[in-house]
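in:
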């Protein structure tokens, strides 16, 4: 396998967490980064492409919410439930 060197920017806190984890496990930073990238790629390969939402006998969104962004719908849901 050919290896390519590259530079990535990570938040300081994330990098520090990974370094501590590598030290505790006797692993390398590179090994943990490779493992994380492999897991991320695998998760995306097996993730469903289409989510099938259950219907509960309703007729969809009310006219007020037709075409509304998710943030607006979410805001209303949480407002109604006092969250």
């Amino acid at each position: 396998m050919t290896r390519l060197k590259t530079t990535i920017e990570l938040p300081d806190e994330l990098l520090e967490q990974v370094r501590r984890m590598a030290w505790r496990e006797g692993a390398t930073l590179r090994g943990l980064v490779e493992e994380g990238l492999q897991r991320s790629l695998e998760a995306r390969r097996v993730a469903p492409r289409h989510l099938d939402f259950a219907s509960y006998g309703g007729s969809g969104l009310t006219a007020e919410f037709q075409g509304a962004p998710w943030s607006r719908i979410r805001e209303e849901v949480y407002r109604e439930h006092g969250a």
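note: The chain has a mean pLDDT of 85.
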